[in-house]
Amino acid sequence: MPGMPQNKAKIVMQPDTGVKFSDVAGIDEAKEELTEVVDFLRAPERFVKVGAKIPKGVLLTGPPGTGKTLMAKALAGESGVPFIQASAAEFIEMFVGVGASRVRDIFKQAKEKAPCIVFIDEIDAIGRQRGAGMGGGNDEREQTLNQILTEMDGFEGNTGVIVVAATNRADVLDSALLRPGRFDRRVEVGLPDVRGREQILAVHSKNKKLADDLTLADVARRTAGMSGADLENLMNESAILTARRSKTATTMDEINDATDRIIAGLAGRALSDNASKRLIAYHEAGHALVGTLLPYHDPVNKVTLVPRGQAKGLTWFTPSEDQSLVSANSLKARIAGALGGRAAERVVFGESQVTTGAGGDLQQVERIARAMVTQLGMSDVGCMALDDGGMMGPNYSEEVSAKVDEAIRQLSDDGYKVALDIMTDYRACLDRLADELVETETISGDRLRELVAEYTTVPQKLAAV
To answer: Residue 108's closest CA among 167, 172, 151, 139?
Structure first.
């Protein structure tokens, strides 16, 4: 068609992305899978000799920032074969048929230069489940998807062309796209564990001067749950703080301040109102005291009255290890810990003087308790996973709904009772923590545990269990 927009993706004969597999850390399993793809392309005869077929597609899935696109860049840099990169969104145009035409054009180029790699980023833009839209199967997106399906495993086939795609929404992809013969390999690029974070930090600190007493292992333990992109940003923010403070090397102070800034926002001006400062001190001391005394709670890393974002004060908890599996005891302890601030306000200032400071805590409690009841089977409602149904409403009866509400309330009430008991039993310790917070504004986790140890030698047992 005259004037039809043509494909913007160009073939790169000798990819020079500046990224090799040695530059990718923390995702060893994904790296191993793609290293195998490079071996397929470089020496296919080894695999053909034993009757193995080269995989036609590799799908990289995982949360944002975990390194999916970086892996594709490393694959291009390592493979030494022609490489085509395109974003799935580039295929979608106003004119019906343009996307399918662009797909044909890309695969035509790839077949001519085979062996060749085609990388499609954010494939969920066109690869969503068909039949759910208003187009009746004839809209532009579905035609584009149909063309990709045909090119990957159609009548002609695509010998020598490997398609690598990335998405963080694998759950919405069409089943025909995921079947063997199209995407033969599905590689999960997840959040790194503590060892992986240490490796990633080593990569991003190569050109940075670190203090002699700073160990990346300590930083890795502090940054549980962060992705590779988060860790890169952390090291950059730390370097910026180092320069701003006219230091020659980054210390743990810069790392901690950068971590706080990334998670909670910029530090605000310290409180000058003594009444408000004391109330917030008791609130944060309540969180910290419950978190320290309950055996299944994550350890306290720091308590501070320095405002960040919407929070007037913060209590940081750092998991002692990566927690892909969390016990019911730990979740109940987190509920009690989140309610420790409200419990401290009630015990110290009275029921009528509790403040809105627990608003975010109550939302956190509701999220944890609802997940325990409706998704994790950790309540009297039973071992069921209940779907809320979205816009259509819940897919369970009103009787079950009433049981769910009661179970959530019970978990919250039990956690609040545990927190109140701790505030009452250890009131002297609570007062001491609040006084020191008002004076110093920040207490480290180690200092907190020293203070608590002066008032107790036996850990409080979780009464709700």
So the answer is: 151
